[in-house]
Amino acid sequence: MTLADRVAAAYAARLRSYGARAPGRFAVEVAGLLVVSLGVDEPWGLQIAALPDEPDPMAVDAAIAWCRERGRQPQVVVREQHRAGLSGLRQVEALPALVASAEVGDDAFEVGPPRDAAEFRAVYGPAFGMRPGLAEALVVDADLTTPDVAHLVARQDGVTVACAQLRDGEGMSYVSGVGVLPDRQRQGIGSSMLAACRSEAARRGCASVWLNASARSQPFYESIGFDLVDTHLALA
Q1: Residues 12-49: pLDDT tens digits?
Q2: Domains and CATH numbers, the chain
Q3: Cβ neighbours of residue 192 under 8 Å, at least 6 residues apart?
Q4: What is the pTM of this model?
């Protein structure tokens, strides 16, 4: 199995890690495909994981129909190399998948778990310009106690300035939610937080970390040691 195959297989695992700890979250299999609701009313709030293998178009159609019968419009996530078989769906977003080694380094800030979900959300929401209530739905107190997900915050002079999430998989951790308060951005804090994520992943026994980027952010991640291994596509 190639590294790209491992990352694609890990995509479903990272979706499952959201669990059913908040209203509206669920994970079910429909026509052999994983369907996951993140419990939020966003275009990406309901996903069909049609990877790592090339999906059966009939199975994808069945999973989409199942979602629509429940009043929901899902996004289908597929590897770019399997796009041709789903020509009836439009591409919503390209998600470069990048990998870096997990290695313990010196943290530039005080990095550790948040006191509670509210401390994490106080950075998470503003960092990504979230609408009211979205951060509260995506991160609840119960999320902080699940063993396969780590929530981290960075503090500078006693102020919580950055956040990140790690979702453990088979020897790999998925990095997401790396955010910095708007008035603290462009000061190297994001890069330091990513380094802290790599350190934490190594401490958790993982050999590497991976993440989904955007075309715009891909060069930044490559500049700090991440390598492109695959591209995932969100279709609708």
Answers
A1: 989 999 999 999 999 999 999 999 999 999 999 999 99
A2: 3-96 (no CATH), 103-206 (3.40.630.30)
A3: 107, 108, 109, 154, 162
A4: 0.94
